[in-house]
Amino acid sequence: MAKESVIEVRDLVVDLKGNRVLNGVNLDVYRGEILGFVGASGAGKSVLTRTIVGLLPKQRGRIDVFGVNLDEAGEMQRQEIERRWGILFQQGALFSSLTVGENVEFPIKEYLDVSDRLMTEIAITKLEMVGLKPDVYRKYPSELSGGMIKRVALARALALDPEILFLDEPTSGLDPISAGDFDQLILTLQRVSSIAVFMVTHDLDSLHTICDRIAVLGDGKIIEAGTMDTMLASQHPWLKAYFHGVRARSGLKAAASN
Amino acid sequence: MTAGILLSSQTRGDWIELSAAGSWTAEYAGAIEPQVDAATRDITARSIAINIARVEYLDTYGAWLIERTIRSWKTQGREARLVGLREDYRGLFEKVHSGTQTLSPPEPRPNSIIATLESVGRTMAAVGTDLVQLAQMLGSLLVAVKRVALRPTTFRFTSMVHHLERVGWRAVPIVLLITVLIGAILAQQGIFHFRKFGADIYVIDMVGVLVLREVGVLIVCIMVAGRSGSSYTAELGAMRMREEIDALRTMGFDPVEVLILPRILALVIAVPVLTFLGSMAALYGGGLVSWLYGGIQPEVFLTRLREAVTSTTFEVGMIKAPFMALVIGLVACVEGLQVQGSAESLGEKTTNSVVKAIFLVIVLDGIFAMFFASIGM
Questions:
Q1: Model confidence over A58-81: pLDDT tens digits?
Q2: Which of A128, A142, A192 sits opposite B342 (nearest CB)?
Q3: What is the reported pLDDT for A251?
Q4: Domain containing A22 — which CATH number?
Q5: pLDDT in tens, A99-123
Q6: Contact yes or no for B99 and A125 at CB 8 A
C-alpha cells in the first residue's frame, strides 16, 4: 500500500529576525503514523511546526496539507483544513477564563452545528478518553496540575476528531510515570482513530516507545528521517551524540530489558 | 462522503435491527442526532440491534451517538446490542464505551433575592478585608523601611531611580498638558458666569485657591493612579503568575523590600513634584485664558493672585500629595499580589487597583479637608 502523505513540506525556507532558521526543509508525514521530530534546542523545530500551521510566514517553499497547497487555498478551504488538525501547545495554552468543559467545547461550538447536549457529552467523552474524571469539566485551568492541563489541552486538540495532531513537547514538564502514561495515551488514541501525529520531542523514551518514524532537524535541514534503527545506524556526528549518548544508552537498555 | 443515516428498521424474528450507513463523523453529527433521538423515542420493541457494517467513516461523534442510543435503550430495560462492528473501530468503541459520563449536577442556583443579599454581604466583607490588607501592606512596608534604614546599603537605589523615571519624569508631559487644559477650563467657566455680576476679577481668586488646594493634586493623583498604579498592579500580578515572587522569597529576599518599597518610594517622591508642576501649569492655563478670553492683563492676574493666595494655600495642596501617593502605591501593590492564575484575574485586579485608588484618594482628600478646616488652614 502506497503511503499517503497528509503533510508534504518541500524546500521550505524561513527567516526569523534576519536569521535563516530553516533552509530547504523537505518532510513528509504519512497518514496514520507517529512521527517524532527531534533536533538540538534552537534548531528550529518549533519554527517548522509554527510555519506548517500558519503562525509564521515562510520565505520560500511549499506546504501541502491533505494534498492542498496552503498558499493557494482559499479562506473556506483553509478553515476546512484547520478543522482537520489539532494542536497541543507546549504549555497547554488553555483559555484561562473558560472552564475545562468550555475549553474543550470551544472548537466544537465554533465549527460544528450540534446540540448543546451532544456537545457536553462529546466534551466529557474526550476528557474521559484522555484519562480524566468527568468532574474536571467545571473546573478552571488554574485549579489543575501541569499533567492535567496537558491532558485537557490534548482533549481540546482532539475535540473535532482531527486527522493530524501536532504535539509540541507533550511530555516536557511531566514526571517519568506521567510522561510514560501520556505516551501510551497518545499511542492508544492514535491507534483508535488512526490519525497522523507530528510530535516535537526531546524525550528519548517517547521516541523509542511510540514513534513509527523519526525525523531529525539540523543546520536548517532534515538531516535524517527513518525508523529508530536508521537513527542508530547513522554516522552523522550529532545523531551519534544524540542516540548514543549516556542518557540515550540507559534509555535503550531500559527499553531492551522490557 | 455521504452523510450518516439511520435506515428504517427491519424485523428479524423477535428483534428489530436498525442499520446505519454513511459517514458518522463530526461533520454530520448535527444531522444524525435527531435521527437517533427519534429512533430512541419511537421504537417500542423489546430487543433492538444496531448494525453498523455499512458505516463508511466513524469517529468519536458517531461512536458516541450509537453508544448513547444503546445506553438509553438499556436504561429503559430493553435489550440492545451492536452488530457488524468492524475490527478497526473496535478500539474506538471500547474507549467510548468505558466512559462513565457521570457529571455531578451543577451547584443549585439560590434564588435571586438571596443571591443579591449574599453578593452585598460578600462585598461588604471584602471592604473589611481590603482595609486589613492595606494596613498589613503598610505594616510590612514600614518594617522594610526600618530594615533598610538600619542597613542602608541594601536599599535598591537603582530600582527606585528606574521607577522614578517611569512614574515621574515620563509622566511630566501628559500631566502638564492636562493640567493646563483644566486650569484653562476653570478660568473660562469662571469668567463666563462671574461676568454677569461684574466680578471677573474674582476668577483669579477662584482659580488660584481651587487649583493649589484641591484640583492640582487631585488631577495628578487620578492620572497617576490610572497610569502608574495600574502598571504596578499588572507588573506585580504577572510576576506572581510566573512565580517570580515565590522565587524571590525562596532566595531569602523580602518581596516588599525588593519590589514594593522602591516602587512606592518612587511614587511618594514623584507625586509631589508632579503636583507642583501640574498646579503651576494649571495656573498658567488659567492666566492665559483670563488674558485672551477675559481680557485680564497678566500683570493684573499676578498681582491679584498674590493677594488671593497665601503660602498656606500652596502648602495644603502639597502636604496631601505624598499621602495620596502612598495610598495609590499601597492599593496597587496589594491588588498586584492578589492576582491568581488566570488572565481574567489580572485584568480584574488591575481595574480594581485603579478604581479603589481613585476612590481612596478622594476619601483621603475629604478627610484632609476636615483636618485643615479644624486646624484653621
A1: 888 888 888 788 778 778 888 888
A2: A142
A3: 59
A4: 3.40.50.300
A5: 888 888 888 887 777 888 888 888 8
A6: yes
- Alpha-carbon separation of residue A220 from A15, A22, A214, A226 (angstroms): 10, 4, 16, 18
Mutate to test the interface with B, among A95, A117, A118 (most CBs of B within 10 A): A118
Q: Which residues of B touch A121 (CB under 8 A)?
A: 64, 68, 101
Chain B partners of A160 at a C-beta cutoff of 8 Å? 26
- Distance (Å) from the alpha carbon of B343 to chain A's nearest alpha carbon: 6
A25 assigned to some structural domain: yes
CA distances from A72 to A75, A133, B73, B274 (A): 10, 43, 49, 57
Answer whether A137 sits within 8 Å of B103, measured CB to CB: yes
Report the number of distinct structural domains present in chain A.
1
Single-letter amino acid code for the residue at B120: V
Q: How many CA atoms lie within 13 A of B334 on its CB side?
A: 24
Higher pLDDT, B318 or A32: B318
B8 CB near a chain A CB, below 8 Å? no
The predicted structure's pLDDT at residue B366: 95
Q: Which of the 8 DSSP states describes residue B227?
A: I
pLDDT over 90, % of chain A: 0
Q: Which domain holds residue A226?
A: 1-84+195-258
**Minimum-distance CB partner of A192 among B95, B100, B340:** B95
Q: Is residue A111 part of a domain?
A: no
In this predicted structure, the answer to whether residue A166 has a pLDDT above a threshold of 60 is: yes
pLDDT of residue A1: 42
In a domain, residue A90? The reply is: no
Between the CA of residue B374 and those of B211, B212, B215, B367, B377, what are the distances in Å?
A: 21, 19, 21, 11, 8
* Domains of chain B with CATH codes: 5-98 (3.30.750.24), 140-374 (no CATH)
* Structure confidence by residue, pLDDT tens digits, A37-61: 887 777 788 888 888 888 888 888 8
Listed in sequence order, the residues at least 6 apart from A103 whose beta carbon sits closer than 8 Å to its beta carbon are: A94, A95, A141, A152, A156
- Residue B87 touches partner A, C-beta closer than 8 Å: no
**With contact defined as beta carbons under 8 Å apart, do B99 and A129 qualify?**
yes
Average pLDDT, chain B: 88
Q: Does B58 touch chain A (CB under 8 A)?
A: no
**pLDDT at A83 (0 to 100):** 81
- ipTM of the complex model: 0.75
Q: Select from B64, B88, B343 the Cβ nearest to the Cβ of A125.
A: B64
